[in-house]
Specification:
binds the ligand Cc1c(CN(C)C(=O)CCc2cnc3c(c2)CCC(=O)N3)oc2ccccc12, binds nicotinamide-adenine-dinucleotide, 264 residues, 41% helix
């Protein structure tokens, strides 16, 4: 098998099932010859993740809750026990108390604000620190963000604030790690029906609105995200770092409801 990722290997964090954005990215990386390791959150997901990893030729899967630094240390020790270096990491992790993703942002609790920032933003810093120590010849780190970081998307609330922190972190990490030839970028994906999205009220409305009002008049898929992920994780993007790249059918460029959009 030849391809853009021939001879490259890396870690995928945040695969839950075959609807995950991480799955779209992992499939494309494998198609282009990458060797993959996976972390999952909690043993409950192991039974879902292991068979998916096997589909992509990988038996290298292990648990990691990114809110625990000891768990991150253990995960990277396991990674290093089989591979002394890696070429890439995908960070496809985000979480908040879903009860605070429906009301008002002004009602956000301190506890959920901190937990959301820890898991959805700080965890990239903690992952990048540990991954960079396994990238002596450089590498590529990719995370996933959403337009709610840039403009208000009703009810995205504290997740939007965390994604704003994540996107700024991408720039600071890019600056710190650039001299080591380690690139750090983000894909800002349009709404996609995943496990994380299924806990959200009105998600069908959000999907329909994006479909009717995006320049391409469609929603994006995990395969759209996978293709752009392959670009950022391969040498095609060798001169690109600190970037947040929209894979959203162009939605972020639109400032008003399309005239051909029916009322929904
Ligand atoms: N689905 C969308 O509409 C959409 C759009 C743009 C960005 N994103 C982002 O894409 C990323 C992946 O989400 P998804 O939509 O594929 O949903 P998903 O539910 O498939 O993936 C989210 C993953 O985060 C993991 N996770 C949550 N808390 C964790 C913790 N403490 N430790 C380790 N892992 C933890 C979950 O186990 C899960 O695997 C998230 O950062 C999300 O914010 C999603
Ligand atoms: C789009 C969109 C999403 C998808 N997206 C971009 C996301 O980043 C998912 C964010 C998310 C974070 N934490 C949780 C959940 C979703 C639901 C399940 C749970 O318990 N916690 O979520 C929204 C919430 C409100 C409005 C729009 C959106």
């Amino acid at each position: 098998m030849t391809g853009l990722m021939q001879g490259k290997r890396g870690l995928i964090m945040g695969l839950a099932n075959d609807k995950s954005l991480a799955w779209g990215i992992a499939k494309k990386l494998r198609e282009h010859g990458a060797e993959l390791a996976f972390t999952y959150q909690g043993d409950a997901l192991a039974k879902r993740v292991k068979p998916l990893a096997e589909q992509l030729g990988s038996d290298f899967t292990f648990e990691c809750d990114v809110s625990e630094m000891s768990a991150l240390d253990t995960a990277f020790a396991i990674l290093r026990s089989r591979w002394d270096t890696i070429d890439f990491v995908v960070h496809a992790i985000g979480f908040s108390d879903k009860n605070e993703l429906r009301g008002k942002y002004v009602d956000t609790s301190l506890e959920n604000f901190q937990m959301t920032m820890n898991i959805s933003a700080y965890s990239l810093v903690a992952v990048a620190k540990r991954a960079s120590e396994m990238m002596p010849n450089g590498g590529s780190i990719l995370t996933l963000t959403y337009y709610g970081a840039e403009k208000v998307i009703p009810h995205y609330n504290v997740m939007g604030v965390a994604k704003a922190a994540l996107e700024s972190s991408v720039q600071y990490l890019a600056n710190d790690l650039g001299p080591q030839n380690i690139r750090v970028n983000a894909i800002s994906a349009g709404p996609i029906k995943t496990l994380a999205a299924s806990g959200i009220g009105d998600f069908r409305y959000i999907l329909k609105w994006n479909e009717l009002n995006s320049p391409m008049r469609r929603n994006v898929t995990i395969d759209d995200v996978g293709g752009s992920g392959l670009y950022f994780l391969s040498d095609l993007s060798s001169g690109v770092t600190g970037e947040t790249h929209h894979v959203d059918a162009g939605y972020h460029v639109v400032g008003m409801k399309q005239e051909d959009a029916p009322d929904i």
